[in-house]
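Morning. Coffee machine broken again, so started the prediction first thing and wrote up yesterday's gels while waiting. Chain of 420 residues, entered below exactly as on the submission form.
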Amino acid sequence: MSQNDRKLHREAALTAGRPAPHIPPRRTKANVIRDDAEAIAVAKELARDFAAGAAARDRERRLPIAEIERFSQAGLWAITVPKEYGGAGVSAVTLAEVTTIISAADSSIGQIPQNHFYMVEALRLAGSEEQKKHYFQRILDGDRLGNAFTEIGTRTPVDYKTNFRNEGGKLLLNGQKFYSTGSLFAHIIVAVAKNWDGRVHVVFIDRSTPGVDFVDDWTSFGQRSTGSGTVTFDDVEIAPFQVVDHEVVFEKPTSMGPFAQIIHSAVQVGIARGALAETVSYVRAYSRPFFELTIEHGYEDPHTIHAVGDVSIRVHAADALLARAGRLLDIATADPNEKTVAEASIAVAEVKALGTEAAQLASIKLIELGGARSTLESYGLDRYWRNARTHSLHDPVRWKYHHIGNYYLNGLLPPRHGAL
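Came back before lunch.
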């Protein structure tokens, strides 16, 4: 891309959104969580507060800057840093449960650190010892990683024009990313880019690096406050220390794919939990019986009782599949081989498929059983369906069914990539 083309692309992006928020450098070090039990306890405490403002943030498309700062300062963004580097090294079961708890309260906040955890895992699997020590310590101290992964205008979502090349002895990064979830809140931007040979790498870039521009131009009808907008790189100078090979983690069996996807699965299960809890609360408080009935309360309606029972079964089944997937992912992480990684990938695909269905069903039944009053904007109950539908488009569930069926019917191992 020529310098003039890059300028035009950047200006086009800047006119489409709002200026990015200022994220000041950390003033204090984050809390360091020591084990799985503490991680769950902290997540539950934060979720209670995050839930209180979720509807208003969604309605106003307000970025949860203060909430994200509290989230990371509480230590939850560092829970996957391995124990040998000072972290809690929590299980995949715990990471999924933490994500579900937060997502039930506010699924935008629950999704924002997904790419942060993905890049922590990329460092664990492919980073040098020096890179691990440096970046893991920054994460333990409270620095957040942001995603600059997917582009628009390419043939598929995993084709990249963003690249870095050697010019006059300097490595220069150029390109533009959309769907950059987490970057507006991040201290370090992690860009996916090709080198001069076309091999895909991830590049860790400090937020304040000259040539990096952010735009708050995310206008989706759901997941409104994830800040998943545009990041542009114009001749950003980088060093070899900032670069980690991304392809290597898929060239052999590793936990990378199912690790990425279990977090997305947990977001959907969290939305399902949140919508079911909201349904019970709303129906108990406000739902009126159909006029053909002689009952006093809407929650006595036999059709409503049946519907809540049906949704509850599906949500509990998704919960169970999520825990099972976490256990199989922990096995694959400890002993990665073709068999264990395939089992983990299929298990995660199963919960992603069922969790997506459960989230949409629960969010639809919330409005159906709540009645006309439940559609009032002041309640913001439509956000559950909008969030579930929007987040489900991250990668198509229809392909989960395909790979699951091929695995059980034909014994075919699933492909290794970040969407399975």
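The longest helix spans residues 302-334. Going to sketch it on the whiteboard this afternoon.
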